[in-house]
Design brief:
The chain has 399 residues and is of the alpha/beta class. The chain has two domains: 3-171 and 301-355, Periplasmic binding protein-like II (D-Maltodextrin-Binding Protein, domain 2, 3-Layer(aba) Sandwich); 172-299 and 363-391, Periplasmic binding protein-like II (D-Maltodextrin-Binding Protein, domain 2, 3-Layer(aba) Sandwich). It is built from 16 helices and eleven strands. The chain has helices at 27-35, 47-51, 58-68, 83-94, 107-117, 136-141, 213-227, 233-246, 257-262, 272-281, 313-323, 326-334, 342-347, 353-356, 362-366, 374-391, and strands at residues 3-6, 70-74, 97-101, 128-132, 145-146, 168-180, 203-205, 267-271, 288-291, 299-307, 338-339. The strands form two sheets. Strands 4, 5, 6, 7, 8, 9, 10 and 11 form an eight-stranded mixed sheet that branches. Strands 1-3-2 form a three-stranded parallel sheet, with helices on both faces. It is globular.
Length: 399
């Protein structure tokens, strides 16, 4: 079985995780999926398994997925969190085709697709979704998600899953320092170090805090290192960056691997998985060190959920079982996205030594603090967006 990629029709505007997607539809592929039996109903005898919300025995789940014939995913770029390898491994393991809808789309596109096709299921209706945390509770409240607790449910930390099983966090990033070792002789180890005089004109954010969620979360994390309180951290974070600006250490440019290599921003604050990928890509060109600060380790997760109207309900649940198995979790980690069961894997010594050697210390990730709700995340983002210029008094611009 092979992977199939479909893109949206019409004139809708698609906002991807990184950029706009070209529009268009593979109508021939849609027709071929229809021929594969996408409208075949689920046997009535199996409906009780689907509605229980509990983990389905693997043999029954595989049999149901084979009846489904394929799985539809959405907004999963192959170079994001190692999804290319994950999709290929799932396809080969269970001999199922994977229909990839709009790989470069957004969480909102997933919501729109569930709503648009709930009464007319087909190859443009995602069976499973990967979304930002802010979509978790609204999606549940609107009845968009189906209950299902994977077999490893008890090893997903409380507070990072819906108690009823409507959604569960999947992987997360923490804010890290990407450092050009050729230009920075003493590597900073914590947020407070960035205020030292030797880092004059060196420190940059990976985005504009008034527009970028990553940059806003960087402010939140810096504040968390001072207050240990998620609620008080936004104000403390803006005070930190105001001080960083006053001592002359903050560079008013959006930092990236390119500006780091050029020496324009020798220290850049961004997601750990992006920094680690930069490090690997620049081997032989620039010596990059990635540092997770010792305090203020803010973890921001994505979520997984099953479409309540999934055309392929058994394949959807089999996908989630695969992702939350040790195998699936380690494939996420291979892409430097820390899986939500990371601490459990560490405790059971399941992280391969060669992979562990490429990551910052597991002790740092054990300290990660996560937002308590999607509402809290939205409130913090709004506060930083509205108050940044008044508090910090510096505009962060593109190079």
């Amino acid at each position: 079985m092979s992977n199939i990629v479909l893109k949206p029709t019409g004139h809708q505007r698609i906002l991807s995780r990184r950029s706009a997607l070209k529009l268009g539809l593979g109508t021939g592929l849609a027709a071929s999926l229809a021929a594969c039996g996408q409208t075949t109903p689920t046997p009535a005898s199996n409906l009780a398994l689907l509605t229980s919300g509990e983990s389905i025995p693997l043999d029954q789940l595989i049999a149901g997925a084979q009846h489904d014939t394929y799985l539809s995913t959405m907004t999963l770029p192959h170079d994001w969190a190692n999804y290319g390898e994950i999709i290929d491994a799932f396809r080969k393991k269970y001999n199922l085709a994977v229909n990839e809808i709009n790989p470069e789309g957004s969480s909102q596109d997933e919501v729109d697709a569930i709503k648009a096709y709930k009464d007319k299921p087909g190859p443009l209706s995602p069976d499973v979704v990967d979304m930002g945390l802010g979509f978790a509770e609204p999606g549940k409240a609107e009845g968009l998600f189906a209950r299902y607790k994977v077999a490893t449910w008890n090893t997903i930390p409380d507070g990072l899953k819906d108690p009823e099983g409507y959604w569960y966090c999947s992987y997360y990033g923490v804010l890290a320092l990407e450092v050009n070792r050729a230009l920075v002789k003493e590597i900073p180890q914590d947020w407070s170090d960035l205020l030292k005089p030797q880092y004059a004109g060196m420190v940059a954010l990976g985005g504009d805090p008034t527009r970028s969620s990553m940059a806003a979360n960087s402010v939140w994390a810096a504040g968390l290192s001072r207050t240990r309180s998620l609620d008080e951290a936004p104000e403390a974070g803006m005070a930190f960056f105001a001080e960083l600006q006053q001592v002359g250490n903050l560079v008013p440019l959006i930092g990236s691997a390119d500006t780091l290599v050029k020496g324009e921003t020798p220290i850049v604050i961004l997601w750990d998985f992006l920094a680690l990928i930069d490090r690997d890509k620049r081997v032989g060109q620039t010596d990059i060190e990635v540092v997770v600060p010792k305090s203020g380790v803010l973890g921001v997760p994505s979520i997984q959920a099953i479409n309540a109207y999934a055309p392929k309900p058994f394949a959807a649940r089999l996908w989630e079982e695969f992702l939350y198995s040790d195998e699936g979790q380690l494939l996420w980690l291979k892409g430097y996205a820390h899986p939500i069961r990371y601490n459990d894997l560490v405790m059971r010594d399941k992280i391969p030594a060669d992979l562990a050697a490429q990551l910052p210390s597991a002790d740092l990730y054990a300290q990660a603090v996560f937002p308590t709700s999607s509402a809290q995340t939205a409130q913090v983002r709004e506060k930083i967006t509205q108050q940044w210029m008044a508090e910090v008094k510096v505009e962060i611009k593109s190079p």
